[in-house]
Amino acid sequence: MMIKPSIIDLARGWLGTPYQHQASLKGMGCDCLGLVRGIWREALGAEPEVPPAYAPDWAEAGLEETLADAGRRHLIEIPPLVFEAGDVLLFRWKPHLPAKHAGIATSRSTMIHAQEGVAVSEVPLAHWWLS
Fold it and tell me: Which residues contact 36 (CB under 8 A, 6 or more apart)?
């Protein structure tokens, strides 16, 4: 019997992957969406949809809930702050802007994410992330 790795184990396999806008290749480069896409492929197989090309400022430019809407199509939405390890987390930089950042919860107090200028890392979910 083969034991399937947990989402957290898969996410930790991406630690150290350099940040690269629109990429989704473990060890080579990814952005926050590419991290979630890559973990999806490892855990579930083919991605359910391919995202269109997007600029770094796509959320501010369009003000549409593109990321959140895609999440609603393929994941189960839960209320904010009601998450468990292995859940996908979406973040807004400001309350009036669309969700623009994603990560994978590794506990109630930590997550793995890709952020510009930093390799994929596991970080504390500090108060400013949770707000």
Answer: 88, 102, 104
